[in-house]
Amino acid sequence: MRIGIDLGGTKIEGIVLADDGRERARLRVPTPRDSYEATLEAVAGVIRELEAQVGETCRVGVGHPGAISPATGLVKNANSTRLNGRPLDVDLKQVLDRTDIRLSNDANCFAVSEASDGAGAGAPIVFGVILGTGVGGGVVIDGRPVVGAQAVGGEWGHNALPLPRDDERPGPQCYCGRKGCVESWVSGPAFQAQYVKASGSELRATDIAEAAATGEKIASECLERYCDRLARSLANVVNLLDPHVIVLGGGLSKIPQLYERVPELWKDYIFSERDRIATRLRPPQHGDSSGVRGAAWLWPV
């Protein structure tokens, strides 16, 4: 058996999969906010508890934000910034006193899962998107993730928002140090902040979408602007990679309006005939489980 861990900004989820892919156990805990060391201990605690539940020592795969730098061996580009500059793989192996642990970018894990037997199954090129606390992406070609020379393959969230309007310049400050990144516009916290600014009220992203569905004016306007920004950003991905399927993951993938409105809007931005856009935008077949399943499959059968 194998364990998959999804180390997110707000939660750590773990799953145990049998060799045939059946789920044997699952556990979710909040991600500590106070320290890197507390995060390490929380991940180790989930692994220990899952192994206790199934009564067996398992191989472990961990999906995490950012990437392990090929140059330094340290985490870089994580929106959970306390991970940056840390030897996460080395430290986790040390805390657990074992070596059978593999790590990969969380969006790559998500993309591999959906390309293997999910919403992108059978498609030659799949782009997996994380829309949550941060904005990540993973590219899978013929079933294999594209990591790249800097280990940043698929990191569309830290390109600038395409075709910015006058009121979108220079854009919000991003944790990476620049302004106007895609992530600073279309992440969950960014969408919520846009609604607060427009309405004075605080709602979760999915609640804003629900309010829009009932015809609430401010929510509808905020959601339409969000869809247009997402359409512009994904159009750049299509123009560069030309994927057959784009699969959305993360908390905002639960917003149903995205799957109708974004493909309609991106027709104005993709470099192709407007009525012949073959790329499909789909929700994840495995839902919240996709990233953690992909982490588990870092160990082949």
What's a concise summary of this model?
By secondary structure, the chain is α/β, with parallel strands linked by helices.
- Give the SSE string: EEEHEEEHEHEEEHHHHEHEH
Distance between the termini: 9 Å
Number of helices: 9
Oligomer: single chain
Verbal overview:
This protein has a five-stranded mixed sheet. The chain contains nine helices and twelve strands. Helix content is 35%, strand content 20%. The N and C termini lie close together (9 Å). A hairpin with a 5-residue loop joins strand 2 and strand 3. Helix 1 packs across helix 2, helix 3 packs across helix 9 and helix 6 crosses helix 7. By secondary structure, the chain is α/β, with parallel strands linked by helices. It has helices spanning 36-54, 88-96, 106-117, 182-186, 188-199, 205-213, 217-241, 258-265, 290-296, and strands at 2-7, 11-17, 23-30, 59-64, 67-68, 75-76, 101-105, 125-131, 135-141, 144-145, 245-249, 280-282.
Features:
301 residues; alpha/beta; five-stranded mixed sheet
Spell out the blueprint of helices and strands:
Elements: E1 2-7, E2 11-17, E3 23-30, H1 36-54, E4 59-64, E5 67-68, E6 75-76, H2 88-96, E7 101-105, H3 106-117, E8 125-131, E9 135-141, E10 144-145, H4 182-186, H5 188-199, H6 205-213, H7 217-241, E11 245-249, H8 258-265, E12 280-282, H9 290-296
Parallel strand pairs: 1-4, 4-7, 8-11, 11-12
Antiparallel strand pairs: 1-2, 2-3, 5-6, 8-9, 9-10
Helix pairs in contact: 1-2, 3-9, 5-7, 6-7, 7-8
